[in-house]
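Troubleshooting: if your tokenizer reports a length mismatch, compare your output against this known-good record of 185 residues.
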Amino acid sequence: MTTARPTARRSMLTGVSSRARLIRRAEGRDAGAIGEIYDEAIASGVATFARGPHDAGERTSWLAARGDRAPVWVLDDHGDVLAWSALAPFSHRSWYDGVAEYTVYVADDARGQGVGRTMLDHLVDEAPALGYWKLVGMILEGNDAGLALATGRGFRQVGTHNAHGRVGDDWRDVTVVELHLEERP
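Known-good structure output:
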């Protein structure tokens, strides 16, 4: 099973060349690490409306249930998962077939190293081969890093859904961002 890297080992590998890192499709062996990274994000209170925990069994089932147009990728650094990202159809309605919602999650101790940027760029590059012409993201208020990541990669803010969901007992807004892949420079 691939796991999130223990803190001591992560600090020893901080200077490892990005060539040692590989973005690949997630496999069942990555489920535990994906769950750990997701639960770290949940604990932050600004990344998702989801509630944990997400153990390896739950994430294995989640991976197995995803369709061909809803892939999950991981950033693998010598067998340690630093991040995961995914695409999923935006809607079941046929006229939105070319629109995907994206998601990027980075392990707490891998943040600030360009990992999120690498993962989002990978989604942008892979999406057209899956039939997507637009990516949409929903970024919770307070997720300044997520919003900066999206806008820094060319996504534009198109609006805010007010009181879109709850984190704990608090209603939270989400900022909607989009990138039309056929209109990229």
